[in-house]
Amino acid sequence: MEYTIRDLIVRALQEDLGPGDVTTEATIRAESRSTAVLLAKQELVLAGLDVNREVFQHLDPDMKFEPFAKDGDRINAGTEIAKLAGNTRALLAGERVALNLLQHMSGIATLTARIVEKISELKADVLDTRKTLPGLRKLEKYAVRVGGGRNHRFGLYDGVLIKDNHIRAAGSISRAVESARKRVHHLLKIEVETKNLEEVHEALVANADIIMLDNMPIDTMREAVRLIAGRALVEASGNVTLETVRSIVETGVDFVSVGGLTHSAPAVDISMKIK
To answer: How far is the C-alpha of 41 from the C-alpha of 30, rounded, in Å?
Structure first.
């Protein structure tokens, strides 16, 4: 089911607020107004500032939001990211949801940027995966792009990726690729996951458009790239980290997909301070 970012924000606020913020309502007058700043407490790559603004303006449509940076900017610790001015209750009620999203998205962008930098002079692109938190995929994949990465398929509907279980169920790589060719339109590329050189050879014979080298040792990856010899695009996947990404890309692959960009990126430290 299609959803909007506004839908996500509404659900997140409903989860956190329930029937109301009892602490704020018990301590702050309804008509009270305040200003606040968003403060970076570590070095980071910013992502999700518009989402942050949407949270506060959903609670107070008259909330003033003045950004001092934009998504994609590298922010130093101690930097003020934005200033808000509006209803105090709205500021306090929206704080946690707004920061959770901003910290999470900026964490993804920051990790992505660090990995991209590791291979900046090499030819491979850094891709994300579908290993995302349910309901947050749009935001997480956006944050990957902000960090300099590229998106792999968004869901099961916009790309053919024949994985090990598809191969077992279909009977072989050749059968799976042949069946896919007959059933999907010509604009969809067909990618095949392989675990050894024998499977790489079978995927080549089947004329796969992209061959994924899944969890292969470096030497095997290098031999697989030599075997493929430009007849298909090559993607490396599995256990890709800041420490391993360069040696993987140096084998000559075209893409490296990193599940950790979305499922393991640590949230960055950003706070909101009432002035």
So the answer is: 30
